[in-house]
Amino acid sequence: MRDLPLPLALTARLSPVVVLACAGWALTSGPFAAPPAGGHGAAGQGAGGAGTRSASSNGSPQVPGASSATAAADRPKTYTSAPAPCTAVSTKTVTALVPGAKTAGKEIASTDESVRRTCSWNALKGYDYRWLDVSFEVMRSNEAATTAYQQRTGEKSGGGAVPGLGDAAYSVVNLTTEDKQQTREGVVLVRAANALVVVTYNGSDFESKKAPATDEINKGAIKAAREAVAALVNSGAGQGN
Question: Rounded to whole angstroms, how far apart are CA atoms 115 and 83?
Answer without folding.
Answer: 9
